[in-house]
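To whoever picks this up:

The parser on our side crashed when reading a file containing two proteins. I've narrowed it down to the boundary between the first structure block and the second sequence. Both blocks are reproduced below exactly, byte for byte. First block:
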Amino acid sequence: MSGPRLTLVTGGRDHGWTLGSVHLQLAPRESPPFDADLQFVEEDTYRVVAAGPDFREVEEHPVRLLTDLVEQQPLEPGSAFREKRNIILVIYDLDVEPICGPASIRTALRTALDLAASARATSVALPVPGRRHGRTALRTGVGLAVDAFRGLAPCSLRRALLHPEPQDLATVRDLLCERVGPAVADGAR
């Protein structure tokens, strides 16, 4: 005689960490548990590192494109601005070594969260700061993200997704537990 057949029911309460008024969850970029209102995208001062390898046909004349490229002024490291559903964080400066430092990450995150709040976003998604194209230590990137959310004034923002690289997921979870405490169910504050 066999017992009842058990099946796994997906769903339920998501676990994460409460940082001020924001519930932070970890999830791979490829399978987020929810669609964030705004995505944070890391970029460099000339906007080349986040550009995909795809070639796009444009109607503008090649001479005009090259003239614009030559006349382009670099963006300020540490700045952030909004483009549709993305908030661009300018944290990389390819003209200096190291290309990414905690000061530019800290400033860009603060500005990005202010932009998200002014847009009345309830959720954001971001990579571990400084890791996507740079060599910022995981501990530093996670710490900067935690500090940014903890320093956020009360606003509409309630949920955040942190997208570590797949090989870093367990380490980031451990770092968050070490820095913030054990994960809790969303809403159990």
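<<boundary where parser fails>>
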Amino acid sequence: MEIAFTHKDKLRIIISIVVLVVGLLIIGVAFTPPFNPPQCEGNLTTDNSNCIIGANIGAGLVWLLGMAIAIVGSIIVAASLVFALANAKTRKPGMALLITAIVVGATVWACWYIFIGAPSIQKSRYQAEIRTRRANFVQYKGIPNIHSVTRKSDALTVKPATGNTNSVAIDLHNCSPGSAKVSYATGTTHFVFSGITKDKNLEGFNDSECILYIGKETVDQNWDGSLPVKCTSWPISNTLSENQLEFPVTNAGIQFSDILGNCQDLRTGVAPDL
């Protein structure tokens, strides 16, 4: 089969493909480190240019811009091919019509999968996983005691794994019920994770939060095992990097900062001093 496009048709197709590629590139780079730096951890503030605090609205706007350009580009590609094939010189019009249908169908399917299908599948899998984790939630009445918790949680990681601990990381997405602890020169900080539950004040994708309790044992005091500090985290995100909270550890203990704003001492009803 011989199909001859005019020079204008070829130019129109090339330009439309370039527009589509530009849109896809913008989508691809919207959430790379230069455009979407990690959340500030521990005691870092907005003075640190390598991290941010709060939602990155700019990255979302860049992503939406890329989507808009890609959608327009894909429509122009399909329209250009249809127009070019309709006006092309061919000895087999039926074959040209079939090719047109295949190209248009493939373009529409690809756009649907990239912009709707794949994100929907990811969201469904994430929400199914969160529902499973919610089913394992442990509700404590009053102040829990470390001696009554036998299960170990893998939501907390000390760094480095061996030797003196320099920092501790809490994985909100992996907020499995159970206990964990971090030891240092002057004592030990104990954690009890209730697990993941739905935040009644939130709706939509990120409507879950991790509930944990904290108690501090010092070497010069008798500790009864109670964990009076209850913390509710901010919404759990479907982005893994946004669920990692890391705090430095010194000889005096864990240097909590941002998370304390979401914590309350159940004995006094005020923010704790950890």
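After patching the parser it read the second block fine. The longest strand covers residues 187-198. The two ends are 77 Å apart (CA to CA).
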